[in-house]
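Hey, resending since the last one bounced:
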Amino acid sequence: MEKSTSFEDLIVWQKAHAFVLHVYKVTEDFPKYEIYGLTSQFRRAAVSIAANIAEGYRKKSVKDKL
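The structure tokens again:
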């Protein structure tokens, strides 16, 4: 198995990133009055998944990864 050199090499991050793009596409059709409500919440939650994976990739200790 080849060691990844970046979090972007992780399949789980790639899927999370694709999910972010999908969420942004779907929420484009949400009502405009939801832009600061539901739309924003969905988008921030989706981005958080990919961001947490990237952050976890940089952690060095086993305790950080549990």
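The mean pLDDT is 90.

Sorry for the duplicate.
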